[in-house]
Write a structure and sequence with these properties.
single chain, alpha/beta, Rossmann fold, 2 domains, 19 strands, 31% helix
Length: 384
């Protein structure tokens, strides 16, 4: 197939329609043991075909999400058992993460790969692909500008992660969450602390609050105070706090003096907290260690810590990926990919983000990819 123009004929109201596809966009299955999300959902197929793309997917692409191949085929999608053929023939390949080596070796000059490519850990892989003149776009590098919001995969996925972290924590907590007043007495509301008030943290605050918890939050960025309070949370900050926020809106590393004051505040606060949701990350770096061992040792038995930063090293001293660690009665949880527990919702949002990026990248008049480096979105996400 390559860059050929493909004609598909089908019957509609008695007429034979011929659709000419200018380019091919493809996606292959991820390793389902690690990643259950998909990059092209049925509702997005129509959007790609309206741009002039033929869509090619691997067999059983969405079957684990209840989307059978027939659904795709009925929409004109080409389904193939041969993933190498899909990779060889597609002009654009959209994935969740970086292709494994045995697949990426099949990419050819002028092809475009789009996904969450983890540029901080894949520098060596990128060198050989860039030398082959393959265009690599990593969407976690999107600039925080208004025009990029519809493509912001970090925000869409973090929203779901923050929600699910609260649900998982509450499921493992052996007390009621809201305050309950009964003839037999009163059950107090659970106290929740959210560490890091970015997108995931704010959704965690909102979810915990809706379920009746008393919610506290802390963040090194003073700009988040108003957002936390607007959701009904109580913002905790150290005296003389500085605004540790980069120009891109992310948290940056704090000074030693700030860390000392923060440790003192957290040590006292955690003694009264039932559930902690950790969301603190620094792009491209190991997650900051915020909840120290002595802090955990002073928490109440039966408390829960859910660490969304587990894969990046964790925000606690005892976090281990995909394990529940019991430290003196305090359960510490963290998963490789919490979104595998919400794959349908996560795929729906991710697929829309990806399409919006492709739509911006695609020259609709010339019917080709236009890598315009004067466009901040393209310039920031292109791996060079």
């Amino acid at each position: 197939m390559g860059n050929c123009r493909c004609d598909i004929c089908f019957s509609a109201n008695g007429y034979i329609l011929v659709v000419k596809f200018e380019m091919i966009i493809g996606s292959i299955l991820e390793n389902k043991n690690i990643e259950k999300r998909i990059a092209i959902t049925p509702d997005i197929v129509k959007k790609y075909t309206s741009l002039g793309f033929e869509v090619c997917l691997s067999e059983n692409y969405g079957s684990h999400l209840g989307i059978q191949d027939k659904v795709y085929k009925d929409m004109g999608v080409k389904i193939s058992k041969n993933e190498i053929e899909i990779l060889n023939s597609s002009d654009i390949i959209v994935q969740l993460g970086m292709l494994p080596d045995d697949k990426s070796i099949n990419l050819k000059e002028n092809q475009t790969l789009i996904g969450v490519l983890n540029p901080y850990d894949n520098k060596e892989k990128f060198k050989s692909l860039i030398q082959k003149k393959i265009n690599l776009f990593s969407l976690e590098l999107l600039p925080r500008i208004t025009r990029a919001q519809s493509m912001d995969i970090l925000s869409s996925q973090a929203n779901l992660a923050g929600y699910k972290a609260v649900i998982e924590s509450f499921a493992n907590f052996e007390k009621a969450i809201p305050m309950m007043m009964t003839a037999a007495g009163t059950v107090p509301a659970a106290k929740v602390l959210v560490v890091g008030a970015g997108v995931a943290g704010l959704q965690a605050i909102a979810t915990a609050k809706r379920m009746g918890a008393i919610v506290f939050a802390t963040d090194v960025r003073m700009a988040s105070k108003e957002q936390v309070e607007s959701l009904g949370g109580k913002f905790l900050t150290v005296e003389g706090s500085e605004n540790l926020e980069t120009e891109s809106g992310y948290a940056k590393e704090a000074s030693d003096d700030f860390k000392r004051k923060q440790d003192e505040l957290l040590s006292e606060t955690l003694k009264k907290i039932d559930i902690v949701i950790c969301t603190a990350l620094i792009p491209g770096k190991k997650a900051p260690l915020i909840i120290k061992d002595n802090m955990i040792d002073n928490m109440q038995a039966g408390s829960i810590i859910y660490d969304l930063a587990a894969v990046q090293g964790g925000n606690t001293a005892f976090t281990e990926v995909d394990k529940i660690i019991d430290r003196n009665g305090v359960k510490i949880m963290g998963e490789t990919n919490i979104l595998n527990k919400l794959p349908v919702s996560a795929s729906s949002l991710y697929a829309k983000n990806i399409f919006n990026f492709v739509d911006n990248l695609f020259d609709k008049e010339e019917k080709k990819i236009n890598i315009n480096l004067e466009d901040e979105i393209i310039e920031k996400t292109l791996i060079k």
